[in-house]
Amino acid sequence: MNRTVYVLTGPTGVGKSALAMDWACRNNAVIIAADSVQVYRGYDIGSAKPSASDRQQVPHALIDVREWNEPYSAADYVHDADAAIAAAWADGRTALIVGGTGLYIRSLIFGLAQSPAVPVELRQALTDEAEQVGDDVMWGRLQIVDPASAARIHARDRMRVVRALEVYVHTGRTMSSWHDDHGMNQPRYDVRGVVLNCEREELWRRIAARTSRMLEAGLVDEVRSLLAVGHAPDCPAMMSIGYRQVVEWLELDGRDYAALSRSIAIVSRQYAKRQLTWFRGQTDFDWLEADSAARLPWL
Question: What pTM was computed for the model?
Fold first, then answer.
């Protein structure tokens, strides 16, 4: 029985899902998502969830496991992914991790980095301050004291920004330095990983095409429906790329689709750059060029 965990990651829009489906079909695999938005029910188009037919053809795990107002942490992911891997192996299948959420992948492979406990009073004080001065100001402060953490945390992700700031204020050390101390040299699994990549201009083209497909598939109507049933516009899933831009667009005039498409594509490109920087610094995976002949190099 093959007890290796396979990982396919790469920047947003590069084409991971199609390659994963091809490999999973040929190798009796379960696809285990590593995506911080696909875990939420109802967030389908903007997170590029696999279609119903794909899920019928290949078993998928860690999709639609939370409601919009339920938190989901890296620790939750590790717990759930461990269970999904064990279930795949028990069923005689191969486990293939697919997605671009680097924190989930790193935590699954190496375990969670230890970080210090912080007084509740400090956390509340920083949360209250964020409410008063705004998320952009707090993120700007984080960018000054801990640029590495600021690079991977979105400015509107108040919970994670406050967490990184409280660690710095309480310990005098950055959250990124605590993560560095983790070492990340004792993997929890035998892992073979690939980062899918392509030339920058081609990646931008793919991101633009993906954005257009999402809008044509009804991303705006999906956001309207979620907001109409009470989903908070500042919940974690709604603050993700695509959803956040649609919310802001609806709050303005909701007419210029070309401007909305450009906005989503620009932010997606920025995110892809950050992902590629992270993959180069945090993994020793093989790199594979995404093209029509690309095949994963395992088995």
Answer: 0.84
